[in-house]
TrEMBL record:
<keyword id="KW-0620">Polyamine biosynthesis</keyword>
<dbReference type="GO" id="GO:0008295">
    <property type="term" value="P:spermidine biosynthetic process"/>
</dbReference>
<keyword id="KW-0456">Lyase</keyword>
<dbReference type="InterPro" id="IPR017716">
    <property type="entry name" value="S-AdoMet_deCOase_pro-enz"/>
</dbReference>
<dbReference type="GO" id="GO:0004014">
    <property type="term" value="F:adenosylmethionine decarboxylase activity"/>
</dbReference>
<dbReference type="InterPro" id="IPR016067">
    <property type="entry name" value="S-AdoMet_deCO2ase_core"/>
</dbReference>
<keyword id="KW-0068">Autocatalytic cleavage</keyword>
<keyword id="KW-0745">Spermidine biosynthesis</keyword>
<dbReference type="GO" id="GO:0005829">
    <property type="term" value="C:cytosol"/>
</dbReference>
<protein>
    <submittedName>
        <fullName>Adenosylmethionine decarboxylase</fullName>
    </submittedName>
</protein>
<keyword id="KW-0704">Schiff base</keyword>
<keyword id="KW-0210">Decarboxylase</keyword>
<keyword id="KW-0865">Zymogen</keyword>
<dbReference type="InterPro" id="IPR003826">
    <property type="entry name" value="AdoMetDC_fam_prok"/>
</dbReference>
<dbReference type="Pfam" id="PF02675">
    <property type="entry name" value="AdoMet_dc"/>
</dbReference>
<keyword id="KW-0670">Pyruvate</keyword>
Length: 112
């Protein structure tokens, strides 16, 4: 996300990640946040029963990098509306990376 708002606001980052978890149907196990001083970035990491969501913000660049990794059939795209509402970016770029493609579980449909 570019041109993002609230990139130094821990409370907004916290509420954004919690909303993304809720709207995606994921199960939150633990949430950790770290700030790096006044007008600096925030890092948030949500450990989920279905994997994780990680948010890293850069205040000086008005940029946010978000990693959403789900298993259990959840749709990571369901996180986007909550994150866009929270940060009101001027531009969003999504890059999808297929993971676990070599895993026997992803090839054996009886295990899904």
């Amino acid at each position: 996300m570019w041109g993002a708002q609230h990139t130094d606001d821990e409370a907004v980052v916290r509420s954004a990640i919690l909303a993304a978890v809720e709207e995606s149907g994921a199960t939150l196990l633990k949430l950790e946040l770290s700030t790096f001083g006044e007008h600096a970035g925030v890092t948030a990491f949500a450990i989920l029963a279905e994997s994780h969501i990680c948010i890293n913000t850069w205040y000086e660049e008005q940029m946010i990098a978000i990693d959403v990794f789900f298993c259990a059939g959840l749709d990571p795209y369901l996180c986007l509306p909550a994150l866009e509402r929270a940060f009101a970016p001027s531009r969003v770029q999504v890059s999808e990376h297929k993971r676990l493609l070599a895993s026997p579980m992803t090839h054996d449909k009886t295990m899904l």
